[in-house]
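Data deposition worksheet. Section B asks for the primary sequence of the deposited chain exactly as it was used as input, without tags or linkers unless they were present during the calculation. Section C holds the resulting structure in C-alpha cell form. Section D is free text for depositor observations; keep each observation to a single sentence. Incomplete worksheets are returned to the depositor.
Section A, Depositor: J.P.
Section B:
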Amino acid sequence: MSYMSIDIRSVIDATSRLLPEIKKPGRKLSLTERLVWTALVLVIYEAMGSIVLYGVEISPSAQASPLLLNVIFASQIGTLTTLGIGPIVTAGLILQLLVGAEIIRLDLTKPDDRALFTSASKFLTILIALFQSAAYVMAGYFGILSTTMQIAVFAQLVAATLVVMLLDELVQKGWGIGSGISLFIAAGVAGQIFSDLFSPITLQDGYFHGVILAIIQAIMNGHGLNDVFIRQEVGRGDILGLVSTIVIIMIVIYAEGIRVNIPISHSRFAGYRGQYPVKLLYVSNVPVIFASTIFTNIYYISSIVWSRFNQNNSNWILNLVGIFESSEAGRPIVKGGLAYYVIGPNSFSEAVSDPVRSLVFVGLMVGMCIA
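Section C:
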C-alpha cells in the first residue's frame, strides 16, 4: 500500500536528483578517521562564520541580533552562517509534524520511505532558505543595499545554506560522529563561552570583553569587582553571567543523570512486574529548538510585514504583530507587538528593565515546550 500519493513522490524524487548528495563511506571508518572528518566539518563551518557576506558592512547595529536565536541556530549575522542551521531544523520539524499528523503518510521503518523523507527534507530546506534569505534582505537586516547587492547577498545566503546542509549530511552519513546540527550548536555555545571568558578585546568601558581578563584587570587597577559584576551592554562577559553559566551547567549535569522508573506489567504473565528507566531529559533540547523555530519565523515574518506595509507603525492591527524602529544602519529593531515578546531579553539589565516581557517570554517558551 502506498503511503504517499504518486504525484508527490514523483516530484520529490525528481527534485532530489537535482540536489547534491553525500554518499556513505564504502568501508567502516576508524574512530580516528571519523574524528578527523568531524574536525574538518567544524573548521569549515567556523570559517564560514568568519567570512563576511560580500556587499555587507558589519557594524554593531547591523550585527546585533537576538542572542538566543544565534545560539539555537548557530548563526553569525552578516556572515555566510547568517541563517545557520535554521532552514535545516525548520524543514525537519515541519516534516515531522506532517508525518506525525499523517498529513503526509510515510512509514519511517521502511528504507524507501526514510529515503523519501530525507529527500523531502533537503528540498524543503532549500525552499525555507530561499524564504529566509529573502526575509533578511527585504527587511533590511543588512542595511540599505542596492538591487544588485540584494541579489548578491540573497544568492550567498542560499549557497551557504546548501553547503551547511551538505556538511550536516556528511557527518550523519557516517563520515563524522553524531549529528552535524548538534555539533554546530555545541561549537557555537563553546565558542561564545570561551570568548566571554578570555576575549582580549578592550571595550568602551575600558575593560576586556572576557570576564576572566576583566576581573584581573579590575583587581590590578584597584577598582574592585563592582564594575564587572554586571555590565549593562549586550555581549559583555560579567561575573553574574559567569556564575549563572556555572550553575546552569551543574543543574544540567545533575538532571542528565536522573532516571524515572516506570512500572510495567504483562497481561499474559500474572504477577510479572518490572521497571523501565527513562531519562528525565529524554527529549533533550528538541522542545527548545521547536519553540525557537516558531518564534524565529514569527519574528522575521513580522519584520518583513513592518518594512513593507507599516514603517510608520500607524496600522494598529499590524502593530499587534510587531512594532519596529529603524536603526542608523537601516536595520529593524523590535519595540513591541507579538514579535517583541517571542524574543527574550538579551541581558540581565534588559530583563530587569522590562519584567513583563521577560515573564511573557518565559511563559511562551515553557508553554510551547510542554505542548
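Section D:
Residues 1-6, 60-64 have pLDDT under 50 and may be disordered.
The chain has 16 helices and four strands.
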